Amino acid sequence: MTADGPSQKQNERQKSRHIGGGSFFGPHFAMTNKPSQIHPATDQAVAEAAALISAGALVAFPTETVYGLGADATSDSAVAAVFAAKDRPDFNPLIVHFAEAQAASRVVVFDQRARALARAFWPGALTLVLPRRPGNPISLLASSGLDTLAVRVPDHPVGRALLEAAGRPIAAPSANHSGTVSPTTAGHVAASLGDRVALILDGGPCRVGIESTVIDLTGAEPVVLRPGGIATEAIEAEIGALAAPETGAGPARSPGMIGRHYAPRTPLRLDAQTPRPGEALLAFGPDAPTQTPGEVLNLSTTGDVEEAAANLFSMMRALDDAQATVIAVMTVPEAGLGRAINDRLRRAATPPD
Ligand code: TXA
Ligand code: MG
């Protein structure tokens, strides 16, 4: 994806990713940028796309709202590849897509409001933010380490066929480069991300054309985090008044995010070289100390920021449980996904107000 020695790095990465199940093909496929990447959504193309998803690669697919950049939602490395492909400067949590509501209910906890909205609007342009079930298999990176998860059942025959064929939930933001508009045709996807996606399933132009409405149901009052394809009036007709997200004074609020970042209870010390007595170490790179009195976990022993992103939230949580006074964090380079990692580390190091 970047200019620095891609194929060798990818070979290493593929080898290292075989540990823990699931290989990692995303960047390998990223080297081609041919119009042939766009495949009319025949049964065969859908089957091929499903196999790619299962192998950890990225596939763009149509939903009724916009095209999504899909990855296996249960794989941290596949989800990290999504953030890398979009060049996001932060880890905005992703929507996880399911073939049917029942599959979603195995991963998040539905209350009465959620059930009413799912019955009324799914499949459709509505995303529900709900508490994650303990022990659910969804990547922590997909929800930025949060205990909540955004879930949706899309209403598009191709999107649903892909979800069924893949047999697993698919994490998918809009299939565009960070900071550009959401794609509503396969051609838009190819123009924005063409060299970063294994395959683009062409299902024609999107019917709705704007993103799904995002409703946060994790608090006492339902909150509109993002207006979208389903009118808020229609939602209010089902579950009553919706609160607007906080705006105005204070720091700018990105949807559903302020005060809700995952932050460890243990204080963080950034830019550490070695741990002090009593500290755990979140290490990075080949030169990290290994013989330390406290717990040490290495985000990437090869210094690969994409691998580090895949490990970030699970390792932060593991060290948070290690009973250390402080988690010392080594420096992660401010390049590629390193920017998003550092953004999140800095937030985690800032005590809540
Ligand atoms: O229509 C859509 O929603 C499209 C298609 C592909 O499904 N997807 C999409 O994803 O627009 P994305 O990543 O561009 O937007 C996801 C939105 C963001 O505003 C994000 O902050 C919010 O959902 N979100 C996701 N998970 C969240 C969570 N756990 N808590 C709060 N907000 C969340
Ligand atoms: Mg988007």
Key traits:
alpha/beta; 4-stranded parallel β-sheet; binds magnesium ion; binds threonylcarbamoyladenylate; 353 residues; DHBP synthase
What's the topology here?
Elements: H1 6-17, H2 26-29, E1 38-40, H3 43-54, E2 59-62, E3 67-72, H4 76-86, E4 95-97, H5 101-105, H6 112-121, E5 126-131, E6 148-152, H7 157-166, E7 170-171, H8 186-193, E8 199-202, E9 213-216, E10 223-226, H9 232-239, E11 268-272, E12 279-283, E13 296-298, H10 305-320, E14 326-330, H11 338-349
Parallel strand pairs: 1-8, 2-8, 4-6, 5-9, 11-14, 12-13, 12-14
Antiparallel strand pairs: 2-3, 3-7, 4-7, 5-6, 9-10
Helix pairs in contact: 3-7, 4-10
This protein binds threonylcarbamoyladenylate and magnesium ion (MG).
Threonylcarbamoyladenylate binds next to strand 5, strand 6, strand 9 and strand 10.
Q: Total helix count?
A: 11
Mean pLDDT: 87
CATH architecture assignment name of the largest domain: Alpha-Beta Complex
Shape: globular
Describe this structure in words.
- It is a single chain.
- This protein is an alpha/beta fold.
- The protein has two domains: 6-239, Alpha-Beta Complex (DHBP synthase), CATH 3.90.870.10; 268-349, Threonylcarbamoyl-AMP synthase, C-terminal domain (Rossmann fold).
- Helix content is 31%, strand content 17%.
- The protein has eleven helices and 14 strands.
- The protein has helices at 6-17, 26-29, 43-54, 76-86, 101-105, 112-121, 157-166, 186-193, 232-239, 305-320, 338-349, and strands at residues 38-40, 59-62, 67-72, 95-97, 126-131, 148-152, 170-171, 199-202, 213-216, 223-226, 268-272, 279-283, 296-298, 326-330.
- The strands form two sheets. A ten-stranded mixed sheet has the order 1-8-2-3-7-4-6-5-9-10, with helices on both faces.
- Residues 1-33 and 248-259 have low confidence and may be disordered.
- Magnesium ion is lined by residues 173-174, 182.
- The site of magnesium ion has 3 residues, from loops.
